[in-house]
Write a structure and sequence with these properties.
Layout (H helix, E strand, L loop, with lengths): L2 H32 L1 H17 L1 H4 L5 H17 L8 H6 L5 H6 L3 H12 L4 H8 L3 H19 L17
Helix pairs in contact: 1-2, 1-4, 1-7, 2-4, 7-8, 7-9, 8-9
Length: 170
Amino acid sequence: MDETDDVADIRWVDFAAFYRETEPRVRRALVAACGVEIGVEAASRAMELGFQRWSDLRLMDNPAGYLYRVGRNAARDRRKALPAVVPEAAERYGFEPALPDALNALTEQQRQAVLLVHGAGETLASAAAMLDISVSTLRNHLSRGLDHLRRRLGVEPARHSINDDPESDR
């Protein structure tokens, strides 16, 4: 084994740890943006590219956000063919049957914000970083998206809003 093999082993170990931490977040964000089939495929392609460019990627301030954007670009043409939320999922996962249509009626930014924060459990800061937007912009998309969903589904707003505590990260 020579020095080149040692460097390759270190590179793989570093990327493997990054992958375990980052791939689920990138995949959730891309599924929220593009639907399950395309989102999973786009996440896989993005992570493959991430491995190929690991020496540059590991130095970035927001590598997960970069990979999210890579995945969105890879899925751009295909994602228009599928709805973001498949109606059959309502029965399978036991949520409001009108929710998929209501989510599909949101703008892409609103849908991503709602699904990342409320569906995938990302913090506001984490979701904003994934989408490469500020937390205040994410809050706006989230607030508008939730308002639209409430109107469409005929649901009264909760007593506490995400905007009640400006210091809150959730």
